[in-house]
Amino acid sequence: MGRAVTIAACALNQWALDFEGNLERIFRSIDIAKCQGARYRLGPELEICGYGCSDHYYESDTLLHSFQALAKLLESPATQDIICDVGMPVLHRNVRYNCRVIFLNKKILLIRPKISLANAGNYRELRWFTPWNKARHVEEYFLPRIIQEVTGQETVPFGDAVLATKDTCLGAEICEELWAPNSPHIEMGLDGVEIFTNSSGSHHVLRKAHTRVDLVNSATAKNGGIYILANQKGCDGDRLYYDGCAMISMNGETIAQGSQFSLDDVEVLVATLDLEDVRSYRAEISSRNLAASKVHPYPRVKVNFALSCSDDVAVPTCMPIQWRHHSPEEEISLGPACWLWDYLRRSKQAGFLLPLSGGIDSSATACIVYSMCHQVCLAVKNGNADVLADARRIVNDETYVPEDPREFCKRIFTTCYMASENSSQDTCNRAKLLAEQIGSYHINLNIDAAVKAIVGIFSMVTGRTPCFSVYGGSSRENLALQNVQARIRMVLAYLFAQLTLWTRGMPGGLLVLGSANVDESLRGYLTKYDCSSADINPIGGISKDDLKNFIQYCIENFQLTALRSIMSAPPTAELEPLVDGQVAQTDEADMGMTYAELSIYGKLRKIAKAGPYSMFCKLVNMWKEICTPREVASKVKHFFRMYSINRHKMTTLTPSYHAENYSPDDNRFDLRPFLYNTTWSWQFRCIDKQVNAL
Questions:
Q1: Range of the domain at 296
Q2: Is residue 460 part of a domain?
Q3: pLDDT for 107-151, tens place per residue?
Q4: How far is CA 285 from the centre of its chain?
């Protein structure tokens, strides 16, 4: 009697529209699964074309090339004697669906369209796909000729069905369906499905991994069963990092855990499990059995194949494990670092350039690059041939082996301190010391000549010379003079990114890194088109408080002692004149609010969906021990004025690693106007009325 089934879940670093690379990674995962004895292989959502194709899903080419890749899989001997479950878009009766295509031995068993589409936050699936709304209904799908020629099939089942093998029953979920309140696994489990599969395209958010793990384990805790989750990993072409975490669970316990962050393009998780454990677990849940007796049955596709062997009594099965979660500081160290590596190797650039100011934000960005170098060296040490080949191409040396993170950092990372007459010697020294400790190629330069030239042109044309407020100038003059410095730094950053390697006799160019955190973006505390304007920003979705904790983590784990003085210094833009050689300008004084307050405003605005009045109502209770209602009202009004005045800056925000659910990214995540009535007259009047009542 067959009872021990061996199954495989994959985490693949797919890339949107990279059909050749995607297919190669799928084949590798199948080979690994088969070598480890798996009889069922599950891959990520839309793995053939890559999840992040966006409006390319509208193109017939995307459908065509997906079927061409599917034909390659079907006809290959590598896919024989293993059920393969792959993801791709399919057009059925002129409607586009997000589908799983499940096949065995050159025959398609079932095409299962997605039922619940992800359409919140960064997801826009309803823009490109239609959900399958016909529960437990199957139709005939007429295969394109390119597939018919391989399978010999004219039509195959398309719809909401399950697979009945010789020894068990399997049912598919796709990503969002696990998160839905009426997840299909509930009814499928009651109908006798013993193995649930989930193919995901789930991206990293700080502190989110435990939610996914809890959902998977709870899916089988109440109903029994085996749950297999596959997920995409890596940067597939935009702001998101898909964080793997492939997993296999049984009866509410984790059996196998994949890595959340790694530089491995292909990761395969294999487990052998006893079906009798599922059956005995379910047998004693009387409430489940009573509900099962009334369930409406699913259409079953019979498969003349078994996931187990007939004589498997001596086959060892896997035991439960304890899930190991990363701390938020570890997540910041690893997630953005892996995202940067994908972006660097896939953009075919030769490294990064970072304007390093000696403050927390740019220092955190530098530490993430240093962490990336650590990950690269570790991957090469562990025998990752893909990472070694990419590193050699990036540094243009076919014999190179990255072994020391500092030495590798020197080759691919340039830092630049751009001093002005308003810069202190302290920040200059901090930047230099940090650069020495991480090993970056460091440049010191002074921008005063360029600033004077720009202001000189203005004075020559207008006959007026602006002054800083400490010298009697107006607030307009003061702000304009700060902006000139900031924007010149952006121009110089791009110039040095293009030509620094040329001056060193090395080929290629550098990607410019930005370092504005999520709180500054929300408040608009940045100059439009300054050195926060870059190619990419690894910390743009991370809060100031989390970055401070990350800096402390780097002190302890990377022994970067230069960070101690950076941590203790008050954050400052250093754009206004020094007073007695010391910095007089600080970020929090400029903003009129603390970074801690900004994080609270951001979470209430985005996650709690609070406008000015609702935010006031929540904060008047939250802060009742430290602020009067009138003080709370003043703080809320100030935030919304500043937010709305500066919202236009989000339209040009540097593409940033998405890490927080209160990100103000205007591109797709936080869709709002950028021209507001900044008086908020009606809303503020409601607040004033409530203050008077209190």
A1: 4-302
A2: no
A3: 999 999 999 999 999 999 999 999 999 999 999 999 999 999 999
A4: 39
